[in-house]
Amino acid sequence: MASKATTARTLLRSSAWSTSSRTAAPSFKQSFGARFASTQSSTAPASSVFTSGATLAAATGLTVGSIAWYTHLYGELPLIGGVSASSLADNGLHPAEHPWSHKGVLDSFDHASIRRGYQVYREVCAACHSLDRIAWRNLVGVSHAVDEVKEMAAEVEYEDGPNDQGEMFQRPGKLSDYMPKPYPNEEAARAGNAGALPPDLSLIVKARHGAADYVYSLLTGYIDPPAGVTVREGLNYNPYFPGGAIAMARVLFDGLVEYPDGTPATTSQMAKDVTTFLHWAAEPEHDERKKIGLQALIIFGSLLTLSLYTKRFKWTPLKTRKIVYVPPKDAH
Amino acid sequence: MSLANNFYNLIFKRNSVYVPVVFASAFAFGIGFDLGTTAFWDSWNKGKQWKDIRHNYVQQEE
């Protein structure tokens, strides 16, 4: 192969194409084989618009200018982050990462934990926090059987109507009713909590930085304020809460609820269970999503492998071809 | 070669056979794939899902 190519080069100079090959001669010396001989381009001119100093200066100016303009407009560059004078006291302590049993990409919720968490929510949190986006029916097949949920819903009175007299009336709850609210409206909620509004918990795990880790850390993180920190009357100190002063007092204490399944109701156990429940409330599609994700990865992975193989298969003749130059016999 | 020939004669020769074979195998694959991945999912998450703990809360089942 190599010797053939060398012959081709030497012969080309004296062949009939010698005029056209003169310009291409320098690159021919550098080429490695006859394969690229026909497609090799001639050397670029020494100076072009791509190598001039003016182009370099203009590109540099454009880059610096656009960065300066962007920084002026938006404050900081994306993906780089800025330096700010924020402190943990202002933004809240960063919550530690906890080994949730549903953390892995293939791990479903622990539904026994969701059930216990619902109990904690109902007995503790529901005194102040609403759960607007969860209906009784959502619990069916997740943490409770349908008859249990019907009973629980029937214990709550809902206003319905109007009846044929045009009057509103009270009726026991049904599966389609949403979780009862502790306060009729926001003003009543504020009035009952010294001006602080207890947030709705339906999407709280999605709505907070640190998600479930934050909620768990907040529930278990109440401590006495450190030296030098004074907390206003009626507020409590919690390092995980931005600012440190939170209106909600510590509510979870060991043995506060009694779990029917015999799980010891420690503070951390209750916090873990109610956080799992709230995580489910924020992402009810969680289990199904992960399962479909697994299926999609298998299917799309197989299809990708198949298409890559097909591409290689189809391109094999082109990728493995060799172009050989056979010199004319009667060269002088 | 005879295997490929058999395959061709059996399936690909007539469109009236080929198209139903495609549909039927897609149907069968869909069910089989779903059963397989569900079995894996259930064994991976054993004891955590509602169907694993349901028997603790529902006694009478006529």
UniProtKB/TrEMBL annotation, chain A:
<feature type="binding site" description="covalent">
    <location>
        <position position="129"/>
    </location>
    <ligand>
        <name>heme c</name>
    </ligand>
</feature>
<keyword id="KW-0496">Mitochondrion</keyword>
<feature type="domain" description="Cytochrome c">
    <location>
        <begin position="112"/>
        <end position="282"/>
    </location>
</feature>
<protein>
    <recommendedName>
        <fullName>quinol--cytochrome-c reductase</fullName>
        <ecNumber>7.1.1.8</ecNumber>
    </recommendedName>
</protein>
<keyword id="KW-0479">Metal-binding</keyword>
<feature type="binding site" description="covalent">
    <location>
        <position position="125"/>
    </location>
    <ligand>
        <name>heme c</name>
    </ligand>
</feature>
<keyword id="KW-0472">Membrane</keyword>
<dbReference type="GO" id="GO:0005743">
    <property type="term" value="C:mitochondrial inner membrane"/>
</dbReference>
<keyword id="KW-1278">Translocase</keyword>
<dbReference type="GO" id="GO:0020037">
    <property type="term" value="F:heme binding"/>
</dbReference>
<feature type="binding site" description="covalent">
    <location>
        <position position="248"/>
    </location>
    <ligand>
        <name>heme c</name>
    </ligand>
</feature>
<dbReference type="InterPro" id="IPR002326">
    <property type="entry name" value="Cyt_c1"/>
</dbReference>
<dbReference type="GO" id="GO:0008121">
    <property type="term" value="F:quinol-cytochrome-c reductase activity"/>
</dbReference>
<dbReference type="InterPro" id="IPR009056">
    <property type="entry name" value="Cyt_c-like_dom"/>
</dbReference>
<dbReference type="GO" id="GO:0006122">
    <property type="term" value="P:mitochondrial electron transport, ubiquinol to cytochrome c"/>
</dbReference>
<feature type="binding site" description="covalent">
    <location>
        <position position="128"/>
    </location>
    <ligand>
        <name>heme c</name>
    </ligand>
</feature>
<keyword id="KW-0812">Transmembrane</keyword>
<keyword id="KW-0349">Heme</keyword>
<comment type="similarity">
    <text>Belongs to the cytochrome c family.</text>
</comment>
<keyword id="KW-0249">Electron transport</keyword>
<keyword id="KW-0408">Iron</keyword>
<keyword id="KW-0679">Respiratory chain</keyword>
UniProtKB/TrEMBL annotation, chain B:
<keyword id="KW-0999">Mitochondrion inner membrane</keyword>
<keyword id="KW-0812">Transmembrane</keyword>
<comment type="similarity">
    <text>Belongs to the UQCR10/QCR9 family.</text>
</comment>
<dbReference type="Pfam" id="PF05365">
    <property type="entry name" value="UCR_UQCRX_QCR9"/>
</dbReference>
<keyword id="KW-0249">Electron transport</keyword>
<dbReference type="GO" id="GO:0045275">
    <property type="term" value="C:respiratory chain complex III"/>
</dbReference>
<comment type="subunit">
    <text>Component of the ubiquinol-cytochrome c oxidoreductase (cytochrome b-c1 complex, complex III, CIII), a multisubunit enzyme composed of 3 respiratory subunits cytochrome b, cytochrome c1 and Rieske protein, 2 core protein subunits, and additional low-molecular weight protein subunits.</text>
</comment>
<dbReference type="GO" id="GO:0006122">
    <property type="term" value="P:mitochondrial electron transport, ubiquinol to cytochrome c"/>
</dbReference>
<keyword id="KW-0496">Mitochondrion</keyword>
<dbReference type="InterPro" id="IPR036656">
    <property type="entry name" value="QCR9_sf"/>
</dbReference>
<keyword id="KW-1133">Transmembrane helix</keyword>
<protein>
    <recommendedName>
        <fullName>Complex III subunit 9</fullName>
    </recommendedName>
</protein>
<dbReference type="InterPro" id="IPR008027">
    <property type="entry name" value="QCR9"/>
</dbReference>
<comment type="function">
    <text>Component of the ubiquinol-cytochrome c oxidoreductase, a multisubunit transmembrane complex that is part of the mitochondrial electron transport chain which drives oxidative phosphorylation. The complex plays an important role in the uptake of multiple carbon sources present in different host niches.</text>
</comment>
<dbReference type="GO" id="GO:0005743">
    <property type="term" value="C:mitochondrial inner membrane"/>
</dbReference>
<feature type="transmembrane region" description="Helical">
    <location>
        <begin position="17"/>
        <end position="41"/>
    </location>
</feature>
<keyword id="KW-0813">Transport</keyword>
<keyword id="KW-0679">Respiratory chain</keyword>
<keyword id="KW-0472">Membrane</keyword>
